[in-house]
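Q: How would the structure tokens look for this protein?
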Amino acid sequence: MGTLPVYRWRLAPEGLATRRQLRAMGLRPGGQDVAAQLERPRRRRGPLVAYLYRIDRARPVRPMTPARRAALAAAMTARRTCPVCRQDRGYCIPRSLGSCVPCHDNPTVAHVAEEASRVR
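A: Here is the predicted structure in token form.
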């Protein structure tokens, strides 16, 4: 197994694309190995690395099935629902807070909402 060819930022040859670029074209890598590596230099840290895949070997993106769409909707609803007040807040609850912003900022309201949910 040889080493991967490395290209500088914006200098990759035609026929190679990153995962995001493939997705924008409606394609996916489809199990192929990484064909090359793209590096973007940074000043004080190591370079940013992106892997490149061959476009001619890429496969079309699998279509979204109704079951997959329902599972994704349920997962996003769970991420938007505050575990303290049980309300869909319309945004993903930050994991660092563990609850929605109003419940986190006002613990007395969160405590009352928690007690009310236990009584139900």
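The first strand starts at residue 6 and ends at 8.

Residues 1 and 33 are 12 Å apart (CA to CA).

Upvote if useful.
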